[in-house]
Amino acid sequence: MTSGITGRITGVLFHPTETFADTIRSDTLKDTLIYLLILVVIFTVFSAALLLVGVSVYAGLATGIAAGGLSVIALIPMLFFGGLVGAIIFAAYMHIWVYIAGGREGITETWKAVIYASTPSLLLGWIPVVGFVMWAWSLVLIIIGIRELQEMTTTRAVLAVFIGYLILAALGVTLVGSMLAGILSVS
Asked: Buried-most residue among 84, 152, 166, 177 (CB within 10 A)?
């Protein structure tokens, strides 16, 4: 059984099944939100440092926003609050699919699964290129976390996660397509 923030980070990264089953299952929502807060602060600090020196995949975004009158510094609170609120909303959204797939242990367990599974993305996702690998590992961890905390089969957990992601991807493609169509029609 792991304890403390570093124990949970190490456990989630290297021994996820045992950590979700033994340690995270007994965490409260308050413990989980404190964990999220700490990881979002880490992500924000390192992302902001990269933004400030312009060595990030966000450089294009930062340049575009700076041209519109906002400085890179203005992105720091956006990263922080976006990370916190985004994780909570995403976990609630994923719970819809978990419930449909048969998860009946409650939304708190889905929040814990999604938030703890975000560990690799929040710790190292700010590093260009490495961020994609960390996102992929977080995706695997969401499946493991949901399986363990919702007491579902792996197949049902995979189904819930992939349907949730596919719908978000379809919405994203539709949104980008609509924006491009609007831009092209103006030209």
From this structure: 152
Residue range 141-175, pLDDT digits in tens: 999 999 999 999 999 999 999 999 999 999 999 99
Residue 2 CA to residue 77 CA, distance in Å, equals 32
pLDDT in tens, 76-125: 888 899 999 999 999 999 999 999 999 999 999 999 999 999 999 999 99
Cα distances from 180 to residues 44, 57, 63, 158, 185, in angstroms, run 30, 21, 20, 32, 8
Return contacts of 165-169, CB within 8 angstroms, 24+ apart: 165/139, 168/93
What is the DSSP secondary-structure string of the chain?
---HHHHHHHHHHH-HHHIIIIIGGG--HHHHHHHHHHHHHHHHHHHHHHHHHT-STTHHHHHHHHHTT--GGGHHHHHHHHHHHHHHHHHHHHHHHHHHTT--S-HHHHHHHHHHHTHHHHHHTTSTTHHHHHHHHHHHHHHHHHHHHTT--HHHHHHHHHHHHHHHHHHHHHHHHHHHHHHHHH-
Interatomic CA distance for residues 37 and 181, integer angstroms: 38
* Block residue for tokens 């950590």: 19
